[in-house]
Amino acid sequence: MGTGIADVLARAGREVIGIDHDPEAARQAVAALESSTARAVRRERITEAERRDVLARFRTFPDLQAAAEADLVIEVVPEDYDTKCQVFAALDQVVKPDTILATGTNALSVTRLAADSDRPERVLGLHFFNPAPAMKLVEVVSSVLTSPEAVAAVTRLARELGKDPIAVGDRPGFVADGLLFGYLNQAAAMYESRYATREDIDAAMRLGCGLPMGPLALLDLIGIDTARTVLDAMYAASHDRLHAPAPVLRQLSDAGLNGRKSGRGFYTYAAPGSAETVADAETPDPAGRRAAARTVDSVGVVGSGTMAAGIAEVFAKAGYPVVLAARSAEKAEAAKARVAKSLERAVAKGRLGADDRDAALARLSTAGALTALAGVDLAVEAVAEDLEVKRELFAALDEVCRDGAVLATTTSSLPVVACARATSRPRDVVGMHFFNPAPAMKLVEVVRTVLTADDAHATVREVCGTLRKHPVDCGDRAGFIVNALLFPYLNNAVKMVQEHYASLDEIDTAMKLGGGYPMGPFELLDVVGLDVSLAIEQVLHTEFRDPGLAPAPLLEHLVAAGCLGRKTGRGFREYARR
After folding, report:
1. Max Cα separation, the chain?
2. Which of 181, 204, 372, 391 has the CB geometry, 3.0–4.6 Å to 422, for a possible disulfide?
């Protein structure tokens, strides 16, 4: 991190003094800057003359006395309070009276560091994100002791560096890490419980949420010891069980298995510091034994909404004859018209040929009664997210569908086993949770209950492969993988706004720029629908009985007021009426 910050400052024309008592660390910092600037010359981003100027502006020294004339000192020593205090105490004796002292901590109290300094009004947090040259977000952290002039000065500097600074108050994790590390901790706990494999957890969050990395791979990149330190600090401040470090984090860090930097963490790497993973005892065997799948030659889809139409489109494009059944022939035809419109858009964008469009539509028939599904090999329901509605539907499918047909529910939050027990053949029932929009999203969560037969489970996984979807296995509990990790994060973002810690825009910006999220949490909540989000959070709270999962009152109030997001024109933000 120190090397990255030095790189950013030197390239922006600042004279930079790098201080480290370890000569090897200083040598590596110079080598890293030489390498990054040489790469920039090769890519024609800077000239050779500009490279020489950048290198001339960076010097290293072994002693803090070298900072005597600095206007700003940024410390990025290890996340240990005593170590940081010693550095600040030494700097107090060295630097000019008006020098600003910035800590790069993301876990420790800036206020406590300031209070122990001789110049508390000149102490603040300046939290860059890794890798500092690439990441645009900088959190400027002020305590109750920090002068507005110091905050203004470093905010101005951050903008001149080409960064996007946001001003935040002093609490562990600040905005981005405060939301990110709770999510990472829950992912670690999910893995520890053996609910899902590390590969499936990471794939689910990449493909289901569009994240650049899965949570366990990200923990390995950050460093498991660092994550444990941040979570310890967050838990000490919040006493929220969601922030109490998962025991597996302690076990790994105590064993020195801290991720990429040590060569092993949740994954095993080719060498310490390498990004290349290598097979280990937990790596799935691609030729692993699975039960033989049942033959699926035809598919039925029940429902007439967006999800049902999307699923029908996916199956039809993959070559399956599909019967789309709804409560009436008119609703079924309207759903088919939605499919036709979607296919037409795909042709217009060059993603699908006209012949393939016509063939897919020819494979799609409609019906206004479930009896049309009598001969299908796989029936997939995508009706309202209401347990009684789904139970009644599965009881009807049990009567209609042939023996041996697999019956799948697309529920995102309801117990699959409750649907299964509405039938006389629970062994044939499985969860098949597609993500919206189904034609575009690659992920399918395959949910087996304690009653699901091995061959029914194998059938759905095989079908996913034919659909060119990525299946992940999970058990029958609320939220499965994605929603169980996503919605507590969204709920915590609402709590931040509710507590007036940060604004909607600051939080959305922080998570997009600092966490790599394709959408900020409030953008996503308004798209999903606040009523849908609240219902999922209520299910999670009921299932796990964790006080930290209780829906934020602000979310409940907005739903009660009819502010449901984009679909009503107002949620956390207001939208133009169409």
Report:
1. 85
2. 391
* Strand partners for 139: 127, 166
Distances (CA, A) of 512 to 164, 451, 504: 11, 41, 12
- Catalytic pick from 143, 342, 413, 433? 433
**What pairs with residue 470 in β-bridges?**
443
pTM: 0.92
Q: In angstroms, rounded to a whole number, what is the distance separating the alpha carbons of residues 545 and 402? A: 40
As a whole number of angstroms, the distance between CA 265 and CA 202 comes to: 14
**457 in active site:** no
Checking if the pLDDT of 477 tops 90, the result is yes
Is 412 annotated as catalytic?
Answer: yes
483 is catalytic: yes
Cα–Cα nearest to 314, from 473, 435, 446: 435
**pLDDT at position 131:** 87
167: enclosing H helix or E strand: strand 164-169
Residues 307 and 314: their CA atoms lie apart, in Å, by: 11
* β partners of residue 166: 139
How far, in Å, CA of 19 to CA of 517, rounded? 34
578 has pLDDT over 70: no
- Beta strand 429-434 with 443-448: parallel, antiparallel or unpaired? antiparallel
Cα separation, 500 vs 319, in Å, equals: 53
How far apart, in whole angstroms, are the C-alpha atoms of residue 165 and residue 543? 39
- Tokens encoding 578: 């169409």
Query: Which member of 483, 491, 492, 533 is catalytic?
Result: 483
* Residue-wise pLDDT tens digits, 95-117: 999 999 999 998 889 999 999 99
* Beta-bridge partner residues of 366: 324
pLDDT at position 424 is: 97
Angle at 483 between CA 480 and CA 487, to 5 degrees: 145
Q: Which two tokens stand for residue 530?
A: 């606040």
Q: Which residues pair with 325 in a beta bridge?
A: 302, 367
Angle between helices 504-515 and 521-528 (to 10 degrees): 110
Is there a catalytic annotation at residue 433? Answer: yes
How far is CA 435 from each of CA 78, 182, 183, 205, 381, rounded to the nearest angstrom?
41, 23, 20, 12, 14
Q: CA-CA distance, 144 to 131, in Å (whole number)?
A: 29
Q: What angle do CA 332, 296, 458 make, to 5 degrees?
A: 115
* Catalytic option among 75, 79, 445, 506: 445
Instruction: Provide the token pair at 262.
Output: 């040590």
Catalytic entry in 412, 413, 491, 492? 412
Question: What 3-state DSSP class applies to 367?
Answer: strand
Collapsed DSSP state (helix, strand, coil) of residue 201? helix
Average pLDDT, the chain: 95
Quick check: bond before 551 cis, omega within 30? no
**Quick one: pLDDT at residue 114?**
95
Q: What is the pLDDT of residues 354-397, one digit of tens each?
A: 999 999 999 999 999 999 999 999 999 999 999 999 999 999 99
